[in-house]
Amino acid sequence: MSDLDVKKQYPILWWTPWFTDRNKWEGVVVDNCGLLYTCKFTLDRSVYDEAKVIVYHGSAFNPKEVSSVDDVKSGKKAWVLETGK
User: Fold this and answer.
1) Of the residues 37, 38, 45, 83, which has the maximum number of CB atoms within 10 A of its CB?
2) Cα gap 6→73, rounded to integer Å
3) Tell me: the pLDDT tens digits for 30-67?
4) CB within 8 A of 77, min separation 6: which ones?
5) pLDDT the model gives residue 13
6) Which residues does 55 contact at the CB level (< 8 Å), separation at least 6?
7) Which percentage of the chain shows pLDDT scores above 70?
8) Which residues is 40 bridged to in the sheet?
């Protein structure tokens, strides 16, 4: 596989961990959409600028600790509040 065949990978940033399990979604890649890119879940906030989606887990959600609302208002990012088990 050449460098041209490698799909671009975008991070999906978990702002808060999944309950107390920090590793449940870390590194999981989504590649079942038939698109020219994949998405990879991470808790690494250093990839914030690259991420288009920021996920908050409901049980750990604190409205005082959210990422920049300006990025959401401008359409640069989307917030997701995940509450499932």
Assistant:
1) 38
2) 32
3) 888 788 888 999 999 999 999 999 998 887 788 888 88
4) 51, 52, 53, 54, 67, 68, 71
5) 93
6) 12, 13, 14, 15, 16, 41, 79, 80, 81, 82
7) 86
8) 11, 29
Smallest CA-to-CA distance from 54 within 33, 24, 78 is with: 78
Backbone torsions φ then ψ of 65, nearest 5 degrees? -120, 35
Contact residues for 24 (Cβ-Cβ < 8 A; gap 6+): 18
- Tell me the helix, strand and coil percentages in the chain, rounded to 5: 20, 30, 50
- pLDDT at position 21 is 66
Report CA 6 to chain centroid distance, whole Å: 20
Angstrom distance (rounded) from CA 58 to CA 12: 16
- Residue 58 contacts residue 16 (beta carbons within 8 Å): no
Sign of the CA dihedral with 72 first, then 77, 80, and 81 last:
negative
Q: How many CB atoms lie within 10 A of CB 79?
A: 14
